[in-house]
Each structure stands twice: as structure tokens, then as C-alpha cells.
Design a protein that fits this description.
This protein is of the alpha/beta class and about 325 residues long. The chain is built from 7 helices and 22 strands. The protein has 2 domains: about 200 residues, FAD/NAD(P)-binding domain (3-Layer(bba) Sandwich), CATH 3.50.50.60; about 120 residues, FAD/NAD(P)-binding domain (3-Layer(bba) Sandwich), CATH 3.50.50.60. A hairpin with a 7-residue loop joins strand 15 and strand 16. The protein binds NADP nicotinamide-adenine-dinucleotide phosphate. Its cofactor is FAD.
């Protein structure tokens, strides 16, 4: 007989991990399922070394540190976090949720909290003819090791948080750092832009990259034009060209699952307490959609406890509401 969990949480990004920890604080039978071999979701995959400034009491911590701390917190009550568990379908059978895992295995739960983010994602590409050829030869979309830029000349492309944060960090290590953006204004956090203004990063705006060639000495020659024109205005020579144009998602496979819920363009529509239309099913983090929702880790940290408490009330109305953790007798 398959075991029935109280709550299964799908997605071990920061929001799913914290929701799992909170559920274990409330002493229910919970597990977190993660499709990938590693936990941490987008933070681990896309920006492990970038600093995050908008998480309470953790300002300036890297993505990697944030996930390590969440993992350590989750271990406090032995929360099972099952990696390589990709949920491939979800349906409701006789008041229980049945999750199909990796296309075959079945898991059951009284309530399910979806924390699976925006789905599979891939970086927006630099659209130059020889992009494939240059990939890994100076051109990249990820910066897994910031120390590898020591002494280099680096150009970062883009004007969002990723580009500005990376330019600020790389400037501390590189010989010379450029930030190339198609507008004069950056849409990163204001404090990050202030740091950029104070740094030695040379801004090239409003510019776009028209073409890139590899020099005989292995450096990249980056030809820039004004954003709205197609004539080379200036060329710079760099060792690394780091594109930070954001990410596009390949869609959410959850949209095809066999549960009756409402989706809109931004995600899975929820009401109060992160409830979906299906009783016992909740959505938190970037996957959830309601008016005014902000796709921030901090938002998801608040949504987790709301969903967990609502989930517990749904299958056990007599289970007392949440106390305050400060009054619990925990070593
Ligand atoms: P993003 O916010 O989507 O920014 C992408 C940037 O690339 C924009 O400035 C955009 O220009 C530019 N761009 C896109 N396509 C382009 C093209 N074809 N040619 C030239 N420029 C192009 O992506 P992101 O910076 O990776 O951030 C993704 C999300 O993660 C955001 O919500 C961000 O706030 C969050 N994040 C937060 C932090 C933090 O809190 N510290 C760190 C990293 C990421 P336009 O401005 O002209 O559109």
C-alpha cells in the first residue's frame, strides 16, 4: 500500500524548501520533490554567485549561501527532500492527490503545494551570426566562478539585476569591466545601480552588440552600434563576453496535468491562502498568479506558511492553528 503524505511540496527552490521546513515545524508528514539532481531551483542554476539583496536578514548573501542555509534549516527536522523526482502528472482520486513521478512511480498526499516556479528556462541569446561558434570561447550566459575573471577584460551585456550585479562583482576582480545596455537607464534595484555608478565599470549606453569576431590573439572584438542603428560606432576588445539578457521559460508542464485549476498568462491563479480552485492544492512562489504578485523570493517565503496552514486545516480542521515558533521548546 502506498504511503499517504500529509503534504507533498513540488519544487526545491528557496520557496519550496522554506515551505517544507515550515510544514515540518508544524509536525506534519511532509516531503519536497525536486525534478533536478540538485536543489535550489533558479538560484542554483542561474545565479549561485550573485548577491541577493532583497531577502530579510540575508542582504548581500550569494544565491549559493542562501540555498545552503535553507538546506541546513530543512535538515533541522529531517525534512525529506527527494531529488530526481520529477512530477509528470497530478490528479485527485477519492479526496487524495495521486502524483505520477518520473512517468511511472506513484506518490499520494492529502494536500499538495506547487512551488515549481516558471518551468524549464533557458537564457535569451545574443543574436549574432557566429553565436554557436563563440559559445564557450569567450561568450557565455553563466558565470559559475567569478574568480576566473581575475585580470581579464570583461563585457557584461544587459540592464537588469543580473547584468548590474555581475558587472559590480566582476569589476572587483577584473582588469577592466564594461557594461553594455541598449538604454541609458538600468532596471536593476536602485541600490545596485548606485553601486554601479560608484564603481569603475565603464558603461556603454545606449548600445547594442552588432557583431563579434575572434582576434588572432584569441580575444573577442565586440562591435557596438547605437541601439536604434546598425552602423558600427565603436569596437572594444575583451576576453569575456557575458550575456545577461534574462531568461525565457519553455512553458509550464503543470498546465497539462489532470487537475481542474485556472491558469492565466502569469501562472496558476490562486485566491486567499494560496488556494487554487482544487481543494487541497496550493501554489506558491513564481508559479502563483494574482493581481499585484511580485516574483520575489521574499514574497514566496511569506506564501509558504500561508499555504501550509491552509493545507493542514483542509485535512485536519482540529489541528490547532499555528503557534509562534519562539514559544516552541526547540533546542
Ligand atoms: P531581466 O530583468 O529580464 O533583464 C534583462 C535585461 O537584458 C534587460 O535590461 C533587457 O533590456 C536586456 N535585454 C533583453 N533582451 C535583449 C536584447 N535582445 N538585446 C539587448 N538587451 C536585451 O533579467 P535578469 O536581470 O536576468 O533578472 C531576471 C529576474 O531575476 C528579475 O526579476 C530580477 O529582478 C531577478 N534578479 C534579482 C536579483 C537581485 O535581487 N539581486 C539578482 C538577479 C536577478 P531592457 O531593459 O531594455 O528590457
Amino acid at each position: 500500500m502506498t504511503k499517504t503524505y500529509d503534504i507533498l511540496i513540488i519544487g526545491a527552490g528557496p520557496v519550496g524548501l522554506f515551505a517544507g521546513y515550515y510544514a515540518s515545524l508544524r509536525n506534519v508528514n511532509v516531503a519536497v520533490l525536486e525534478a533536478l539532481p540538485e536543489i535550489g531551483g533558479q538560484v542554483t542554476t542561474l545565479y549561485p554567485d550573485k548577491k541577493i539583496w532583497d531577502v530579510p536578514a540575508m542582504a548581500g548573501m550569494t544565491g549559493r549561501e542562501l540555498i545552503e542555509r535553507l538546506e541546513a534549516q530543512a535538515k533541522r527536522f529531517d525534512l525529506p527532500v527527494l531529488t530526481n523526482h520529477k512530477v509528470t502528472n497530478l490528479k485527485k482520486v477519492d479526496e487524495e492527490f495521486v502524483l505520477e513521478v518520473n512517468g511511472e512511480q506513484e506518490m499520494r498526499s492529502k494536500a499538495v503545494i506547487l512551488a515549481s516556479g516558471k518551468g524549464a528556462f533557458s537564457p535569451r541569446r545574443l543574436q549574432v551570426e557566429n553565436e554557436e561558434e563563440l559559445l564557450g570561447q569567450g561568450l557565455s550566459y553563466f558565470a559559475p566562478n567569478l574568480n576566473s575573471y581575475e585580470g581579464h577584460t570583461v563585457a557584461v551585456l544587459g540592464g537588469g539585476d543580473s547584468a548590474v550585479d555581475l558587472a559590480n562583482e566582476i569589476e572587483k576582480r577584473a582588469n577592466k569591466t564594461y557594461l553594455i545596455h541598449r538604454r541609458d537607464a538600468f532596471r536593476a534595484l536602485e541600490q545596485s545601480v548606485l553601486e554601479l555608478d560608484r564603481s569603475g565599470v565603464e558603461k556603454k549606453t545606449p548600445y547594442k552588440v552588432l557583431s563579434t569576431t575572434k582576434d588572432a590573439d584569441g580575444r573577442l572584438k565586440v562591435n557596438l552600434s547605437f541601439a536604434k542603428e546598425n552602423e558600427v560606432q565603436e569596437s572594444i576588445l575583451v576576453d569575456d563576453l557575458l550575456v545577461q539578457y534574462g531568461f525565457k521559460t519553455d512553458g509550464q508542464a503543470e498546465r497539462d496535468w489532470a487537475v481542474d485549476v485556472d491558469w492565466d498568462k502569469a501562472g496558476l491563479v490562486v485566491e486567499d491562502q494560496m488556494k487554487t480552485k482544487e481543494e487541497g492544492l496550493y501554489a506558491i512562489g513564481d508559479l502563483s498568479s494574482y493581481e499585484g504578485h511580485a516574483d520575489l523570493i521574499a514574497t514566496g517565503f511569506g506564501q509558504g506558511p500561508a499555504a501550509v496552514n491552509a493545507a493542514i486545516a483542509s485535512f485536519d480542521p482540529n489541528h490547532a492553528g499555528p503557534g509562534h515558533s519562539s514559544s516552541l521548546n526547540i533546542d
